[in-house]
Amino acid sequence: MKREIITTADGSKTIHIPEWDEQYHSKHGAIQEAYHVFIEMGLFYFLKNKQPKFFKILEIGFGTGLNAFITLIEAEKFKPEIDYTGVEAYPIAEEEIEKLNYTTELNTSEELFKKLHSCIWEVSSKISESFTLTKRKQFFSEIEDKNVYHLIYFDAFGARVQPKLWTEEIFQKMHDALKTGGVLVTYSAKGSVRRAMQAVGFTVERLPGPPGKREMLRATKY
Ligand SMILES: C[S@@+](CC[C@H](N)C(=O)[O-])C[C@H]1O[C@@H](n2cnc3c(N)ncnc32)[C@H](O)[C@@H]1O
Fold it and tell me: Residue 60: its pLDDT value, please?
């Protein structure tokens, strides 16, 4: 499928899929959305409530690496040791990576962003003092981890274009993959998504969404 780089409202770039009229991030601001949904409501919530020294994050849809990158930047400040796994079936190309402007927009290290993309797939690579990354080239339906992760960033394309990724079947896999007390965050606030999460045992909260979106969801495995 054809992909093109576009600029979102906060100046940061994302990838647009014309055939689906779908983006990797919100048109209202890629960096703003990623910080709100995954860092504020996920990472910071988890650090504040659980205060772990070491924890494991699973990302559903590694894509441009933006979520991994901002997690790495925050990990450098707070120094919890993060073991991050990004699952992605369709890795982006070198020329697409070069067109992303996250290091300029965040005024931060280009070397670290490049390292996220250049490290080899399927093995664990130490990216910085407190951040280790494993990129897995895999379909979400093939995920079989059990009781491994503390936090999941659920960042699949929307249910409008990929409804099969927002079903009980997938959320059962997410529930299985989390440890007890583990948390999943996503930008979606759809009623059908919330009900699919509840059906597999999650306790779900509706939270204020990022710019351009009224709500988002956070699900906890008790
Ligand atoms: C919304 S984008 C993810 C954006 C990403 N988190 C980022 O920060 O750039 C969804 C991602 O899921 C990937 N994807 C789509 N269908 C998939 C599937 N069935 N299994 C695995 N990856 C899939 C896409 O290639 C895309 O990178």
Answer: 98
Six token digits for residue 13: 């770039």
Indicate which atom in ligand 1 lies nearest the CA of residue 23.
1
- Which residues form ligand 1's pocket by a CB distance below 6 Å? 24, 61, 63-64, 66-67, 87-90, 139-140, 155-157, 162
pLDDT at 193 over 90: yes
Pocket test for ligand 1, best of 73, 140, 142, 160 (most atoms within 8 A of CB): 140
> 128 C-alpha vs ligand 1 centroid, how far in Å?
24
Q: What is residue 89's DSSP assignment?
A: S
Distant-in-sequence, close-in-space partners of 111: CB < 8 Å, separation ≥ 6: none
Assigned token pair, 43: 């990472």
Q: What's the average model confidence in pLDDT over 65-72?
A: 98
Phi, psi of 2 (to 5 degrees): -70, 140
Residue 115 pLDDT > 90, yes or no? yes
Q: Which residues of 70-96 are buried (b: 16+ CB within 10 A; e: fewer)?
A: bbbbbbeeeebebbbbbbbeebbeeeb
Please give the structure tokens belonging to residue 154. Answer: 């659920």
Tell the residue number behind the tokens 């979606």, with chain if given. Answer: 188
Q: pTM of this prediction? A: 0.98
Nearest to 137 by CA among 25, 62, 58: 62
Can you tell me whether residue 139 is helix, strand or coil? coil
Q: Whose CA is nearest to atom 20 of ligand 1?
A: 139
Which residue's entry shows tokens 């994050």?
A: 57
